[in-house]
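Fill-in record for Ig-like domain-containing protein.
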Amino acid sequence: MPFKRPLGERAVNQSAPTFIRPLQDRRVIVGQSVTLECQIDGYPDPVIKWLKDGQNVTQCPDYEMIQEGKKHALVIKCAQGADAGRFTIQAMNAAGIKQSTCMLIVGPAPTPIPGGSGSMSVAPSPGPPQTPVGPSAPFFIKELRHQPHKQGEKAVLEARVVGVPIPQVEWLKDGKSLNNYRLNVEYDPQTGICALTIPQMFNEDIGEYTIKAVNNLGTAQTSAQLVSSKEKKVQGA
């Protein structure tokens, strides 16, 4: 709906929103607090809307929106994997509309490698370079995590990938294309969530699992291991 100009207000006094400081990509660990902030100028004062992956989250109770003069911020007090994604702030007034976008990457906390000593851990991979709003090579904002192999139990390996154009994904086991009718593979191109489910684990499922994402701008992959309980006991002895 177009803005109505108050009577007597001259168009010459108006200025479209301008980002003095745009949003910046951020990477945090699960459980940490993170603030996405920018500075916006414009007259009349712009109306602000926040979006996550294209959905309006301005009224979302999980996020706190702060405005102090020209500064606008979205605060997440305890980031979780579901918070990862593309955040956009839209600023609109009678003179125009502008927006700024950033990527929030939420990495897992360091986790022990099954079968390793108690002091060994895997730290999250370094964050990718700043992601453009336009086309970008794939990268994983949620990576696979190592899991213990428990005979007869269920296991789920899950990751989340982003990229423009939307990447194609492929699962590998020990470096070879995964071809096992018992395993269920799911991929939602819109959210980027990729999941591999093993309904009931057997010894043949032990190994390294990799998911590879590809688009015309590049390739990315993440890997995790299913390690048997017996191997864990021997290595930890």
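KEY FINDING: The chain has a mean pLDDT of 82.
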